[in-house]
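COMPLEX REQUEST
Ligand: pyridoxal-5'-phosphate
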Amino acid sequence: MADDLFADAETFGFETRAIRAGQRHDPTCGAVVTPISLATTFVQEEPGVHRGYEYSRTNNPTRQALQECLASLEGAAHGLAFASGMSAEDTLLRTLSPGDHIVLGNDAYGGTFRLISAVLAPMGFAWTATDLTDPEALRAAMRPETKVVWAETPTNPLLTVVDIAAIAEIVHEGDARLVVDNTFATPYLQQPLSHGADVVVHSTTKYCGGHSDVVGGFLATNDSELSGRLAYLQNAIGAVGSPFDNYLTLRGLKTLAVRMDRHCENARAVVDLLQGHDKVTHVLYPGLSDHPGHDAAARQMKDFGGMVSFRVAGGANAAMRFTTTTQVFSLAESLGAVESLIEHPGLMTHASAAGSELEVPADLVRLSVGIESTQDILDDLGQALDRL
Ligand SMILES: *Cc1c(COP(=O)(O)O)cnc(C)c1O
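STATUS: Structure written out below.
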């Protein structure tokens, strides 16, 4: 609802909006926390006359609060919450028609690649994967029927940075929209719409939720016509999360700013440790001045995030062993929560990319650096490195 006092970025800062935007004190009892509204249906005064809620798939008060809050954080006029990042992506791509063409980054999230190449392509959609850090490659990949260019920045697990403003210019030379998956950066570190993106996508399962306890997705845009179509599809397809899911994500957002500051601080300490170790052959982190995307990251991000990847001496076996010798870092897929996680992308999250252009190096280890005590994180990695 447009009358939300705290949605306005001109008046209230990010942290205040993370806690308050979209959330009104309950008029019946004054509860300061948005209730989990379990009702599936809402009373009407006369047929068609109601308070904005009819049926919970169409609109739900808990989901509405989350939608307004995260839209405000992205600097977006409109936001829609979904049951998962993938269902948000699927709903967005259903605005296209068979025959339309999609360009995506050649190290896109595996699930995005699978949705486009294995679900949509057989239905008649065309796609091209290309290097979005290379303007000429993007120009060459675009066709008259290109409707979406899908970028991620930073990417997973190689932490490649795409210059959003630079590619927005190229994308808008044609009749296409620029979609940016902002899952890794979060709106606290990067607001793609302000750099020329048309739509922001989130897996809120990661940093937005932040506690490894809820799966969700989000779309944000300033395009009212597109937003209307997306709201129609959200209701028509029905891939919405439960009120409890929406509540957990809304609760996670309240601490996003303080968590991200700590994630970044701990990641910096981890990068320093890794860079000084002789068993580490390469550290991938956009905060490093020798990272190819460092300048673009410094322009479009407030800080460089909590994800760190690195390559170890000794190849695939050494990398695999390393991931089983940490205690503070749990060996698990996913990322972006308070606890530190470690994984071997080649054997875990990116196993299905083996042999394709999305294949990742076998000696690569990915860290999702959590917000535990910095010293515990460093001690844990230090003892594992010493065993290599
Ligand atoms: C996890 C993830 C997704 C998919 O989101 P789900 O919530 O798992 O469906 C999409 N993009 C990125 C970058 C992700 O990390």
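REMARKS: The chain has two domains: 3-254, 257-386. The first helix runs from residue 14 to 20.
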